Every structure is written in C-alpha cells, then in structure tokens.
Amino acid sequence: MTIARGRKSGTLYKTKRACHLIAVAMNENPNLWHRRLGHMSEKGMRIMHSKGKLPSLRSIEFDMCEDCILGKQKRVSFQRSGRIPKKERLELVHSDVWGPTTVSSIGGK
C-alpha cells in the first residue's frame, strides 16, 4: 500500500502536493496538534498557522502539557565535596546492577 510519494532530500521525503498528508487528519484541537508536532511551542505553532500550515485550527492556545513541564526540569548536579582523587587504576569502580526482571522485552524474552 502506497500512502504518499516524494523525492528524498537528506533524511526527509518531500511531496509535490500543496496539501500534505498530515493536513488530511483535520482536527481543531490545539492540544492534539501540539503533541503531533513534537510538543512544539505556542509561538512555533502561531508561525505555522500564519503560513497556512495548520488550516484546521481556529485557535493556537493550548494547555501546558505534563510532558513539557517534566522536560523543562533541571537535573541536580552531583556533589563535588569530599571527593578524594584515586592514585591507582581500578582503585574505585562503579557499576549498575539490575535484574532479574519480570518484565518481558518486545521480543518476549
């Protein structure tokens, strides 16, 4: 089954149609479009809307989603105090150990 045809340009396939395949899925929900566009900012969606790339949207305003909030959190850095430099190789070794697990992989193993 062929959904669309296009020429490869770098890592993208460009179609010749003015109405791209994504516009076929008409929906007026700006929250859904925010997720579809990889959690694009409201400003970015306004620019796309002004260029006619989001014709189904009447409003660009959307709620801040939980994924965006969590993605903007900053990580706490490790403490540097009390650190003693090691003189020999393998004097101090760190490793992560996990398992056995009851969760199956995608392959079922």
From TrEMBL:
Ranges of residues in domain GAG-pre-integrase: 22-73
Family matches, as InterPro entries: GAG-pre-integrase_dom, Retrotran_Ty1/copia-like
Cited Pfam families: gag_pre-integrs
Name of the protein this chain belongs to: GAG-pre-integrase domain-containing protein
Species whose genome carries this gene: Vigna mungo (Black gram)
